[in-house]
């Protein structure tokens, strides 16, 4: 069973023109998804609906077989989902270690150091870190949490090429080795190339591109039959 699904999902802000129309996608654990599309096409909107930050105007979001509205959006956010926001959303009177401790009982220092922060930087108030360093703290906070779903909005947007590549590999590991469902909104072609599944949004619709060669390497089980109502399996 997919951990997360959208069923005929639609959304419009203030009842005006539709941002999303009839989107049905299944998301599995153990896979990294990249959501691509032109600016303003609804990528962040889709991520917000998946994370229970907003309610669809049509259709539903289902997590572990249950409509997240019925489950309770706050419960869904608390139990199932970690976010890496575009604006980081760090607690600005705390240092990095304290920010990571908010979501996890795991020791924060190894995770922060793995993401390239020095011991001294982890003790500094987050507002005294550079934009890229703050972004890495936000990523560490999400990685340290135990939720099965990780939603990330442009997680490599503020990083140099090498750091972006490193973060991409850490997110991929989180999907493949820790068996999380990692869903990333990105404009980065390099990140998208590393994803197992690419979802392209355009004019409110989604197109799915699978990478069967990557998926087969990770799993010896039979490939799952997709239930999406969108065009499928186009090797890039
Ligand atoms: N609160 C809001 N009220 C009204 N319209 C909104 C609101 N938030 C977003 N929109 C509009 O909805 C559309 C989709 O926005 P969204 O942020 O989901 O796009 P996006 O694909 O993530 O864009 P980008 O790549 O530029 O970040 C845009 O046209 C945007 O202007």
TrEMBL record:
Single GO MF descriptor: ATP binding
Keyword Cytoplasm: no
SMART domains per UniProt: AAA (SM00382)
Listed Basic residues bias regions: 224-236
Top-rank lineage group of the source organism: Bacteria
Keywords, in A-Z order: ATP-binding, Nucleotide-binding
Residues of the ABC transporter domain: 4-228
Record's keyword annotation contains Nucleotide-binding: yes
Pfam families according to UniProt: ABC_tran
Region listing for Disordered, in residue ranges: 210-236
GO CC terms of this entry: plasma membrane
Family in the record: Belongs to the ABC transporter superfamily.
Name of the molecule in the record: ATP-binding cassette domain-containing protein
């Amino acid at each position: 069973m997919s951990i997360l699904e959208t069923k005929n999902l639609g959304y419009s802000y203030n009842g005006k023109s539709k941002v999303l129309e009839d989107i049905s996608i299944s998301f599995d654990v153990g896979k990294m998804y990249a959501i691509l599309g032109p600016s303003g096409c609804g990528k962040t909107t889709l991520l917000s609906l998946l994370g229970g930050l907003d309610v669809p105007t049509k259709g539903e979001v289902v997590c572990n077989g249950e409509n997240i509205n019925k489950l309770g959006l706050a419960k869904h956010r608390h139990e199932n989902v970690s976010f890496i926001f575009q604006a980081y959303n760090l607690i600005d009177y705390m240092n990095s270690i304290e920010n990571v401790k908010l979501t996890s009982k795991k020791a924060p220092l190894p995770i922060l150091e793995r993401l390239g922060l020095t011991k001294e930087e982890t003790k500094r108030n987050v507002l005294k870190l550079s934009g890229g360093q703050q972004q890495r703290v936000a990523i560490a906070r999400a990685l340290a949490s135990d939720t099965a779903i990780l939603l990330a909005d442009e997680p490599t947007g503020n990083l140099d090429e090498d750091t972006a590549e490193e973060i991409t590999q850490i997110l991929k590991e989180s999907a493949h080795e820790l068996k999380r469902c990692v869903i990333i909104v990105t404009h980065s072609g390099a990140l998208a190339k590393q994803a197992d599944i690419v979802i392209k949004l355009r004019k409110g619709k989604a197109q799915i591109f699978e990478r069967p060669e990557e998926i087969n390497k990770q799993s010896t089980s039979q490939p799952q039959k997709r239930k999406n109502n969108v065009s499928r399996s186009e090797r890039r």
